[in-house]
Every structure is written in C-alpha cells, then in structure tokens.
C-alpha cells in the first residue's frame, strides 16, 4: 500500500541516495509520486530555489464548486506537518512556501541532492550535444535516450505490497 511514508521513502531516496548514470540527464523539475488514496501527489525537485531540492505537496484532483474556490485545499497544518516529518527523517528544512489555503505547498531543503543527480540536471541544462542549437528542445534519439537513462524513484504501485 502506498502511504506518505512510502512516498517520502521513494522520493527522498531518489533525491539523496540514488547514484545516477554519468550519461543521463534529468529535467530540473524532477519527478512526482501520486498518493491517490489521499488525493495528493508529491513532487521531488532536485534543483529548485537556490539550486537546492524542493519537496512539493499538491492536490490530486481539484473540484471547483459554485461560489467557492475549491472543495479541497490543503489542510491548515499539512505543509507544516510535511516539513516536520522531513526534519524528523533527518532532512533539514530551509523554508516553506504557499500551503493552506492554496492547493500546493513547497518545502525547500537545505542539503543539496546527490551529486550524480545534480550532474544529471546540469547535463539537461547543457542541452543536446549532437544538436547544440536545439538545446533542451531537441527530440532526437540521442537526447531522448540520455533522458531515459535516469533511474526513477523506486516506489510501490497502488496495488503493490508495502516496501519495508
Ligand atoms: Zn539532438
């Protein structure tokens, strides 16, 4: 079963403990992991503000009601709870942005991502080496293969067993 704990295990493991190939690139926004049981998904960005990682909590599906902005904003404590849980896991928090009553909130982390992931983001910004004039907008086989070599977060599928 997927829980916030398994999502954070996977996302933080990807940001901090995964050695990326030296011939892969990663778009700077990173990746996201859904938690559909709670109508949430979490983004893990390796290179956010100040070039440090950011964990983002988002509402999965927002339903707009007449006369109201949205049915399900983040709850008042949700962003602070996420920041506290990250600190409890030994991940120092630098700042938070947004949160209630918005549908998104961000936690800026103080420790840089794994150096091989940072290097992969730098490779993304460098752009396609075969077609430098196309920079990051290339769609050639070389550029797509370089992006496909990134190791993705390891997380249980919604149907899968818990990963302990
Ligand atoms: Zn290319």
How would you describe this protein?
By secondary structure, this protein is of the alpha+beta class. It has one domain (4-148). Helix content is 27%, strand content 18%. It has 4 helices and 5 strands. A 5-stranded antiparallel sheet has the order 1-2-3-5-4, with helices on one face. Strand 1 and strand 2 form a beta hairpin. The longest helix is centred in the N-terminal third of the chain and has 14 residues, at 4-17. It is globular. Residues 159-164 have low confidence and may be disordered. The structure holds zinc ion (ZN).
Précis, in short:
This protein is of the alpha+beta class. The protein has four helices and five strands. The protein has helices spanning 4-17, 78-88, 115-126, 141-148; strands at 31-35, 40-45, 54-59, 93-98, 104-109.
Structural class, from helix and strand content?
alpha+beta
* Mean pLDDT across residues: 90
- Which residues form runs of ≥5 with pLDDT under 50? 159-164
Roughly how much helix do the residues carry, as a percent range?
Answer: 25-40%
Bound compounds: zinc ion
Biggest sheet: strand arrangement: 1-2-3-5-4
Strand content: 15-25%
Task: Give the overall shape, derived from the CA principal axes.
Answer: globular
Count of the domains? 1
Per DSSP, the total helix count is 4
In total, the number of strands is 5
User: How do the SSEs run, as a string of H and E?
Assistant: HEEEHEEHH
- CA radius of gyration is 17 Å
Q: How far is it from the N-terminal to the C-terminal residue, by CA? A: 11 Å
Largest sheet: 5 strands, antiparallel
